[in-house]
Amino acid sequence: MKKDEIARLVETGIDELNSTLLTGRSVRLEEVMKLMARFHKYSFKNCLLIAQQCPDATKVMGFHGWKSVGRSVKKGEKGIGITAPLAFRKKDASADETEIRGFRVVHVFDISQTEGDELPKLTRPTGDAAKWIEPVEFLIESKGIELQYGILDGGAYGKSSLKKIVILSGLKPPMRLEVLIHELAHELLHPDRETRKELSHAVMETEAQAVAQVVCQALGLEAVERSADYIHLHNGDSEVFSKSMQRIQKCASGILTHLLSEEELPVRSKDSCEKPNSETRTTLAA
Fold first, then answer.
1. Burial letters for 29-65: b for 16+ Cβ neighbours within 10 Å, e otherwise?
2. Does one domain contain both 25 and 143?
3. 101 near 88, Cβ under 8 Å?
């Protein structure tokens, strides 16, 4: 597949998503977001390309990648075209300093297109919401964001107010985890007053909830609240919609990279292991 074909495929995919959303249907986008959760290290456009060419993909690698784990691509299988950055070493710079100068087309294959040795059973998220609450709290605080639990006005579950997050006390683990991720997404996506003035409330809420949905799915959970009203993201403008989805993917990927890396997880004390779900952060007075 050539670069111009990839570009047309991406453009067609975004236009198709827009068309279905304008008719009030978001099933197609839900499918793309499931792939974003499954392949969180891939860009939104690459997830879109995978969704168009192999919507049921579960694990993809290049030809040589599969060879390295004892599997080979079946004869006659067609590769899934995606893009990869072209990195070059900067002039008069150290060997580890590179810059991106465009992209090239590469091909990957889903495991269903291969045969050979069985892959080792990999540890996957179990869907236990309580397990992820403390790591998310740790991630929030590691970014210099104050985290509190307390009472909120207007029936809100959480509030983000620039370097400060307040979560309603007493939420059950699934909802508590989702709200923590939702408010963290606000802090990462909408980090200053200028950004929050430029974007409508509907766009910001939809972006934050979309991040929460992708992250929860990647952790083996279903989001309690679905971010189905995607029409607010674009108002029919493909470019605006595409940029918003890229922000969502980048934010969700960053959160998941931290959560799924053992080095990023907090070391629990004996007390916190005995009470992993206690709201030990600053609690607001009722």
1. beebbbbbbbbbebbbbbbbbbbbbbeebeebbbeee
2. no
3. yes
In a domain? residue 99? yes
Looking at the fold, whether 89 and 160 belong to one and the same domain comes out as: no
Mark which of 92, 116, 140 sits at the end of a domain.
Answer: 116
Residue 163 counted as domain residue = yes
121 is a domain residue = no
DSSP E strands: which ranges in the chain? 60-61, 71-73, 80-89, 98-110, 114-116, 146-150, 158-160, 164-168, 282-283
Query: Residue 191: how many CB atoms within 10 A of its CB?
Result: 15
Residue 134 and residue 105 share a domain: no
Rg (CA), the chain: 21
Q: Which domain holds residue 260?
A: 129-283
Same domain, 35 and 166: no
For residues 218 and 156, membership in a common domain is answered with yes
Q: How many domains does the chain contain in total?
A: 2
pLDDT tens digits in sequence order for the chain, 286 residues long: 888 998 899 899 888 887 777 776 677 788 888 899 999 999 999 999 999 999 999 999 999 999 999 999 999 999 999 999 887 777 766 656 777 778 899 999 999 999 999 987 655 556 789 999 999 999 999 999 999 999 998 889 999 999 999 999 999 999 999 999 999 999 999 999 999 999 888 888 889 999 999 999 999 887 666 655 555 666 667 788 888 899 999 999 999 999 987 434 444 333 333 333 445 555 554 3
249 and 47 Cβ atoms separated by less than 8 Å: yes
**122: helix, coil or strand?**
coil
Quote the pTM value.
Answer: 0.81
Q: How many C-beta neighbours within 10 Å does residue 264 have?
A: 13
